[in-house]
Specification:
The chain has helices at residues 3-14, 55-65, 84-90, and strands at 19-24, 39-46, 74-82. With 91 residues, the chain is α+β, with helices and mostly antiparallel strands. The chain has a single domain, classed as GMP Synthetase, Chain A, domain 3. It has a 3-stranded mixed beta sheet with strand order 1-2-3.
Length: 91
């Protein structure tokens, strides 16, 4: 299973996901000299589990869910974590 699928599956097991989109941006970091293990990913998760959660709490939740993948399979992770209402208000 590829890394994007693992990320998606773990998040879907950890919270109720309305939408998830993962972009692998590892190609942008090919020239890194240090810490070359793991990929660079951009993550959008829409979930009403985020209702009444501060941004830092949302990030901590996702880091807890992906804990075993961090630093090995994931080197960098950019996250946009929104409730369904927040997502709809952006459009």
């Amino acid at each position: 299973m590829d890394t994007q699928s693992k990320i998606s599956n773990l998040i879907k097991e950890g919270i109720d996901v309305l939408k998830i989109h993962i972009i692998d941006e590892s190609y942008k970091h090919v020239s890194h000299q240090k810490d070359t293990r793991g990929g660079h990913f951009k993550l959008l998760v829409i979930s009403d589990n985020f209702i009444d959660m501060k941004l830092i709490e949302r990030h901590k939740l996702i880091y807890q869910i992906l804990n075993k993948m961090m630093k090995v399979e994931i080197h960098a992770l950019s996250m946009q974590l929104l409730t369904d209402e927040e997502y709809r208000n952006q459009c």
